[in-house]
Amino acid sequence: MDRSVRVLLDVNIFVANIMAYDRGHTGTATQSLVSMVSAQTWGMTRKSQLIISFEMIDTLEAVLRRMHFSEDRIKAYSGSIIDIMRSGPEQLDPYLILGGEERFAMPDIEDAGVLATAFAADADLLVTDNLSDFTTKDSVVINTQRLNTKASGPRILQALRYQVGGGDLVVAHPFDVMQWLRLGYDFKPDALWQILKDSTR
How many Cβ atoms from other residues are within 10 Å of residue 68's Cβ? Predict the structure, then answer.
């Protein structure tokens, strides 16, 4: 049986999810992704295992406090995320990352910690709305699609690939991930990257 797709959702995905809920939105890309990992599904046929670290939980809680969410709601939300990870197909606990960030030449230590978490957990996919924060000299970049939204105007989305040691990770925007799910792409990093390369030829 295939291993579950190990998915690390960046803190901004969880923030966007709770904000979309409060604004009465339904079916946004971030809501769909959080819903899938909550249900331990990935597309039509695969299972998903959420990956997160205690450091990321701390960051999420700090962001929500700055946004003036109540402490009870913050703790309930972060607790539910930990429960999702622990109840996933592989029943993992959030990772406590002690070092590893220094492997990645990134200006933001928190972003380097997110990458370190992804590699410590052998994640297949890191989903973030802040792709530019994860682009370094060690990443391979490919353009994926052109967008024109009210919020951000015209822009080109990209996907990144990191191969560090024996680890292989694709970093992508939630819009791209949802499109790839609709198209039934294979989310093993080597297979996914080959599909992306072939689609740009």
Answer: 6
Span 55-73, mean pLDDT? 96
Q: Which residue has the tokens 């990209």?
A: 158
Domains and CATH numbers, the chain: 5-199 (3.40.50.1010)
pTM: 0.92
Two structure tokens written together for 2: 């295939």
Measured over all CA atoms, what is the biggest interatomic distance in the chain, rounded to whole angstroms?
A: 51
Residue 50 phi/psi, 5-degree rounding, is -70, 140
For 149-176, give one letter per residue: b (16+ CB within 10 A) or e: eeeeeeeebbbbbbebeebbbbbbbbbb
pLDDT digits (tens, 9 = 90+) for 94-129: 876 555 555 666 767 888 889 989 998 999 999 999
- In this structure, are residues 77 and 18 in contact, taking their beta carbons and an 8 Å threshold? yes
Distance CA 164, CA 116 (A): 10
